[in-house]
Amino acid sequence: MDLEVSNSYHQQGVGIVGAGLVGCLAALAFNAKGFSVTLFEYRDDPSKTKNDNLRSINLAVSARGIRALKYVDEEMAERILEHIIPMKGRMIHDLDGNQTSQLYGLFGEAINSIDRSFLNECLLEEIRHTDIKVLFNHKLVAFEKNHGEDQTPKMTFIDTSEGDAASKTFEFDYIVGADGAHSQFRTQLQRTMRMNYSQEYIDMQYIELYIPPSESAKDDSKFLLNPNHLHIWPRTNHMLIALANKDGSFTCTFFSPWSVIEGITSTEQWISFFKKNFKDAYDLIGEARLATVYETHPRGSLLQVNVYPYHSPDGRAILLGDAAHSMVPFYGQGMNCGFEDVRTLMELIDEKGGDVLEAFRSYTEIRKADLDAICKLALDNYHEMSHKVTSLWYLTRKRIDSL
Ligand code: FAD
């Protein structure tokens, strides 16, 4: 169902913590309904700073995520979808570099590759054409639920752009915490209510790598691998994947248990490990780039976070996206689910005739079973792999089959 623009709930202020993927979509969705929205982000404005985030992941956008984007704004979704690269199958690379294509379906069914930072910037660009107020360099440090007689929640931020790191306080009718897996808003909210919370790290790390475009860049030949496949180098307990970017490059992710990466103690060992296990990728990435990756790129942890309930008892605050349900990435649904959170909440706001308190309460009730299920599937898949199958290839197949 498309957003009914006639539903306009003016003059109610919504403060959103975190201008990541989910916070941005939530801001656009509330704004489209006529709420006055302020979006707070810890980082600097990416349009004004060089992107030195070495953890820029390529995401698979699935039907779930696309439906939510279209729900918020059909035209915006079309603008964003212009930048995706459909992947119609997986391409398996064996140890000798032989490639085998496995199509997902008989009718061109595809999952879609997009760079996470780029998608985030697309959403921020959409926000620039609205009256949403965005405050970058604002780090949430405190939350108080009951302030004054009207019970308006208040949040305190440190403005890191100011020399003396000034602290500022804001009041809103409603607050959305969308500040990711390590959510400070969640920590603050937990002090004020009985919220169940669990966190589990899995024994797996990831590192980002990069395959450049072909130097003889002419039309399709700019891609060194087939762009319409998800490339997978499955090995016994580790794997490499690569997803295409529009500029002809590929973003790769190397996943392994921590013991594998920690057992590699020098750049030379890393390069020979890579050459042995991923010979064709080694040729495409190049030794110099591999050395830089080993020496400078961060190793990411993977964790699952679950909370219950998602909203505060007074109905003024709610957690969306990874702040509420960070999941391990082997189902490729973290962001897609976060986008679905936004659509579900907006549908409830309409259903409740603009009563946000009621919508927040109902959200917890109706969303829990679905979120529990998808987080469990993602984690079970990891456990199944690590205890029974010991093959990341098995895990990858299950992830892709689920999209
Ligand atoms: P985030 O993207 O973490 O954004 C949170 C924002 O809050 C950030 O901008 C942060 O700077 C800001 N913030 C944090 N603290 C504060 C504070 N105190 N004050 C103010 N702002 C703050 N998902 C998919 O759907 N498909 C995939 O294929 C997929 N692949 C993945 C692969 C890997 C390796 C990983 C790690 C994840 C993958 N995911 C995938 C998951 C996806 O990346 C996340 O689910 C998604 O980024 C969550 O978005 P979010 O907006 O909730 O949180």
Report on this model:
With about 400 residues, this protein is α/β, with parallel strands linked by helices. It has a domain at about 15-85 and about 115-200 and about 300-390: FAD/NAD(P)-binding domain. About 35% of the residues lie in helices and about 25% in strands. The protein has 13 helices and 18 strands. The strands form 4 sheets. The chain has a 7-stranded mixed sheet, with helices on both faces. The chain starts with 12 loop residues before the first strand and ends with a helix. The structure holds flavin-adenine dinucleotide. The site of flavin-adenine dinucleotide has 34 residues, from helix 1, strand 3, strand 9, helix 10 and helix 11.
What's the CATH class label of the domain at 13-85 and 114-199 and 301-389? Answer: Alpha Beta
Distance between the termini: 22 Å
According to CATH, the fold-level topology of the domain at 13-85 and 114-199 and 301-389 is FAD/NAD(P)-binding domain
How many strands, what sense, and barrel or not for the largest sheet? Answer: 7 strands, mixed
- Please state the average pLDDT score: 88
What is the radius of gyration computed over CA atoms, rounded to a whole number of angstroms? 22 Å
Output the strand order for the largest sheet. Answer: 6-5-14-15-16-13-17
Q: Any guess at the CATH architecture of the domain at 13-85 and 114-199 and 301-389?
A: 3-Layer(bba) Sandwich
| Unreliable runs | 1-8, 385-390
What is the β-strand count? 18
The name of the CATH superfamily of the domain at 13-85 and 114-199 and 301-389 reads FAD/NAD(P)-binding domain
Shape from CA axes? globular
The number of helical segments is 13
Q: In percent, how much strand structure appears in the residues?
A: 25-35%
Bound molecules: flavin-adenine dinucleotide
Catalytic activity: L-kynurenine + NADPH + O2 + H(+) = 3-hydroxy-L-kynurenine + NADP(+) + H2O
Protein name: Kynurenine 3-monooxygenase
InterPro entries: FAD-bd, FAD/NAD-bd_sf, Kynurenine_monooxygenase
Organism: Suhomyces tanzawaensis NRRL Y-17324
